[in-house]
């Protein structure tokens, strides 16, 4: 096996060109969504992009609908004595709510 990589170094380059973009995209998405467990799993395990691709297309969207539904419920039915306002400045492209 070692001889294969020594005789054909372009195989390593192809593996890196395939793996690094998938890993970067998956780690970025996990960090943005606050999935710490997934972030650590993706950074430790190297599965030639298979786990990264699965996370991006399958697991990253789990729970997304539930969070948006909760935000809509807060906007429609605010609790008595709680005032919801939009912040003017945000570190992300999405607007965030501040509960006062």
Biggest sheet: strands, sense, closure? 2 strands, antiparallel
**N-to-C order of helices and strands:** HHHHHEE
Approximate strand percentage = 5-15%
Secondary structure category: mainly alpha
What does the overall shape look like?
Answer: rod-shaped
Number of helices: 5
Terminus-to-terminus distance: 62 Å
What proportion of the residues is helical, as a percent range? Answer: 55-70%
Assembly state: single chain
Mean pLDDT, all residues: 79
Number of strands: 2
For the biggest β-sheet, the strand order reads 1-2
Gyration radius, to the nearest Å? Answer: 20 Å
Low-confidence stretches: none
Describe the structure.
- The protein is mostly helical.
- The chain has one domain.
- 62% of the residues lie in helices and 6% in strands.
- The chain is built from five helices and two strands.
- The chain has helices at residues 2-7, 10-33, 36-44, 50-59, 64-76; strands at 84-86, 97-99.
- A two-stranded antiparallel ribbon has the order 1-2.
- Helix 2 packs antiparallel against helix 3 (36-44) and helix 2 (10-33) packs parallel to helix 4 (50-59).
- 6% of the residues are buried.
- The mean pLDDT is 79.
